[in-house]
Amino acid sequence: MALNPDAIGSTSDPLDVSWTSKDTLLYAVGVGAGHEELTFTTENSADITQQVLPTYPVVIGYGKASAMRSIGSFNPALLVHGQQAITLHREIPVEGTVTLTAELTGMYDKGKAAVVETTTTAVMDGEPLYSLLSTAFIKGEGGWGGERGPSGPKNVPPEADPDHVVTYSTSRDQAFVYRLSGDRNPLHTDPAFAAMGGFDTPILHGLCTYGFTGRALLHSVCGSDPTRFQHVEGRFASPVFPGEELTIRMWSAEPGETVFTTGAGSGDDERVVIDQGLLRHT
Question: What is the value of pTM for the model shown?
Answer without folding.
Answer: 0.95
